Amino acid sequence: MMKSVLIVDGTAVAYRAFYAVRGLSTRDGTPTNALFGFIRMIRQLEAQWGPDRLVVTFDGGSPAHRLAKCPDYKAQRSPMPDELRTQLPLINEFLDTAGIPMILIDAQEADDVMATLAVRATTAGTLVRLATSDKDLMQLVSERVRIVPPTKTDTELDPAGVEAKTGVRPSQIVDWLALIGDVADNIPGVMGIGPKTATKLLVQYGSLEAALAQIEQITPPGLRDKMRSGSETARLNVELMTLDGAVPDVPEWKDIPPPAPDLAGLKAFYEKYELHRFVTELNRQPSAAPRAAPPPPPPTQQLELF
Q: How far is CA 50 from CA 4, 47, 54, 283, in A?
């Protein structure tokens, strides 16, 4: 059976957990809602997909090359809520105790780190599942790369699923996004072109560049005018939205260890933060020997987002 890896967009999971679980804290008032939700989603993903490897990636900030092309890239996003920020060290502590490799690289986005890991894993003959809700990652989908939502579900998006969802193939996703833009990243699309029109153009011409090369043939005239006036915007968007599959400092695939949980340490961690549900679940598991010393960790930083 082909080995599999689950690569989790940890930033997205942390935010989703924070807003999904409210009002949870320890007796001394330490917020734990994001921590609880994060752990629950990670455990659900592991149970659902049973990966041989599990890696969690986090945003380390916007890359310089994107900011140089678009100074307003992601500039509209609100600062992280303080109650979430205070739980980031707890999430770090959980991942370390659970023996789950974490990668955060300064001035590199989680999407690009995920892309780099996916390229390396598929080269090694591994089936990759990307746990994310970010549509940018659809450009990576192939016979060996799938997208799964971070929530508990058995749904996975393969190439046919991407086409059913968007009307275009994974190889056309960047052009499709370049035409419609991405509000979440503060990237405007071509004025007046929405998803259905973008799909129609790409189905007819195959690619953005092919459509622009035959721009005089585009009908109706109003659409032709929109493409002409928005051509530079669309081309810039392609550069912004194409994921980097060769991010420096991402560890080599062979250097990323499989999960190695310290069960005694996890129990102490859960008790410390009064996560009684997880203590109960852990007590049902057979006891295990103390965790062996792990290999040197990949180059990462502590989880301090934005």
A: 8, 6, 9, 21
| Residue-wise pLDDT tens digits, 190-208 | 999 999 999 999 999 999 9
How many separate domains does the chain show? 2
Domain with 110 in it: what CATH number?
Answer: 3.40.50.1010
Amino acid at 226: K
Q: Where are the beta strands (DSSP E) in the chain?
A: 4-9, 53-58, 102-104, 127-131, 145-148, 181-182, 187-188
Please check whether residue 242 is in contact with residue 251, taking contact to mean a CB–CB distance below 8 angstroms.
no
Average pLDDT, the chain: 89
Is residue 177 within 8 Å of 136, Cβ to Cβ? yes
Give the whole-angstrom CA distance, residue 196 versus residue 179.
11
Cβ-Cβ contacts under 8 Å for 121 (sequence gap 6 or more) = 5, 7, 53, 128, 253
